[in-house]
Design a protein that fits this description.
Elements: E1 2-5, H1 10-19, E2 25-27, H2 29-32, H3 45-62, E3 71-81, E4 88-89, H4 107-122, E5 130-143, E6 151-165, E7 181-183, H5 195-201, H6 203-214
Parallel strand pairs: 1-2, 1-3
Antiparallel strand pairs: 3-4, 3-5, 5-6, 6-7
Helix pairs in contact: 1-6, 5-6
This protein binds inosinic acid.
Inosinic acid (IMP) is lined by residues 9, 75-77, 92-93, 112, 115, 174-178, 190, 202, 204.
Length: 215
């Protein structure tokens, strides 16, 4: 089975490829020739996840590539902090740009670092440090045989991991908010834990395991 992963995030791609069982090939957007940015205009993780999968599905159809694959899936992820009533949620990627704004250095690492600095600062005087990561994965799968006989099936699955925001940054692994997130049952951040451990308990890992069950 060949599935396109509708994400430009190389870290997510690496995790998803490591999680998928043998027999399912995950193709990157680059591999299928899709080089655009997708605007995340939805107001929920579910909407944004569907927008990404739909956009790539339509593009594959318009470019005669849909029959080369078995489907497309997308991931949208949010960090939900209890003491902030679930913020930043759907705004997790661009949180540093929102009031109060945080200065960002160049590149993707600069974005991640500005977002982490904001998380630590927003919780600076809070004792409740509970939080969760939530991922919604949308799959659009072509069912049936042959170009004309194929009908699309769309479904969504969700994965959640509960945890705590740490008091400072710890570890160099992972990406995004990983150095400030301690998953429940552990005393290390996702950035300190081996990738296999993160993948086995993470929001994305859990959503992907549910996806594999329905493939
Ligand atoms: P999006 O799903 O690409 O919109 O990502 C939302 C934001 O969450 C980005 O800032 C990511 O860096 C962050 N993020 C997504 N997944 C993870 C993760 O597994 N660990 C830490 N941060 C993540």
């Amino acid at each position: 089975m060949r599935l396109v992963f509708a994400s430009n995030n190389a870290h997510k791609l690496q995790e998803v490829q490591a999680i998928m069982p043998a027999g399912i090939t995950v193709l990157s957007l680059h591999e299928v020739g899709f080089e655009q940015e997708i605007d995340e205009t939805g107001t929920t993780l579910a909407e944004n996840s569907k927008i990404k999968a739909d956009t790539v599905c339509q593009w594959l159809k318009a470019n005669g590539k849909w029959s080369d694959v078995d489907g497309v899936f997308a991931d949208d992820t949010g960090l939900e902090i209890d003491a902030l009533n679930g913020a930043p949620g759907v705004y997790t990627a661009r949180w540093y740009k929102m009031e109060p704004t945080f200065e960002k250095k160049d590149g993707e690492a600069g974005t991640f670092s500005a977002n982490r600095a904001k998380a630590l600062w927003m919780l600076r005087d809070k004792t409740d440090r509970g939080a969760q990561f939530k991922t919604v994965v949308t799959l659009i799968k072509a069912k049936g045989e042959g170009a004309d006989g194929r009908k699309d099936e769309c479904l969504q699955v969700e994965g959640i991991v509960r945890g705590q925001i740490s008091d400072a940054e710890y570890g160099n692994g992972g990406f995004g908010y990983d150095p400030v997130f301690i998953p429940e049952g552990y005393d290390k951040t996702f950035a300190e834990l081996p990738a296999e451990v993160k993948n086995s308990i993470s929001h994305r890992g859990r959503a992907m395991m549910k996806l594999v069950e329905v493939l």
